[in-house]
Design goal:
It contains ten helices and ten strands. The chain is an alpha/beta fold. The protein has a single domain, classed as P-loop containing nucleotide triphosphate hydrolases (Rossmann fold, 3-Layer(aba) Sandwich). The chain has a six-stranded mixed beta sheet with strand order 6-7-8-3-9-10, sandwiched between helices. α3 runs parallel beside α6. The longest helix has 14 residues.
Length: about 240
Amino acid sequence: MSETVLKVEGVHTFIGQHHILQGISFEVGADAVTVLIGRNGAGKSTAIKTVMGLLPPSEGRILFRGKEIQRRKPYEIARMGIGFVPEDMGVFSGLTVEENMRVAMLIEDEATYQRLDRTLEMFADLRKFWKAKAGNLSGGQKQMLAIARAIVNDTSLLLIDEPSKGLAPIIVESLIEVINRIKDHSVVILVEQNFSMASSVGDNFYILDDGIVVHSGIMAELVHDEELKSNYLGISKVGG
């Protein structure tokens, strides 16, 4: 059995008066991409924002490599080796690609610049538009920049929120290739509505519904479970 990198135990999270996460628990191993899936409003994005410290849990524990992190600030969690790619990408439109990358660096040392070189090999467009303002990039290029900024640091756990949202199918195919390459260096938790993408990169899954985990297992088995996909994901065999 692989090492448990992240363990979420009985976590409750509120946004204002709304009780979004209602005691969720899940584990993430070192050798797999774990996908959080479910309908809109199920609590998927809230789950990884809670892990990142952006939303404080009211109850429960979050352990990263055995250390509790649920009371830490987001910058402290980032320095521990957890990267976060938000749903809105979060790039600085008025800065160049180069400036976005440098702002994201926790430390500017030789190891960081080696990771930068490796990252730019994956994202050729970023090298091409290195001196261009990030606001002039396409949606797909901005998504690539958002991911690149997260992995330029010594990131051992990467949280990615809805990366395919609003992107053309050909760009989604590129994202699938990128995530499959990233998992050679980092453990990945992916929140994704696009089941085709989720099943292409995911090893394990947790289905969330109304703020709780209702099912979990191996992604390869979920692909063939028409009843489960219909009940919780709204995917029918005909329309899937």
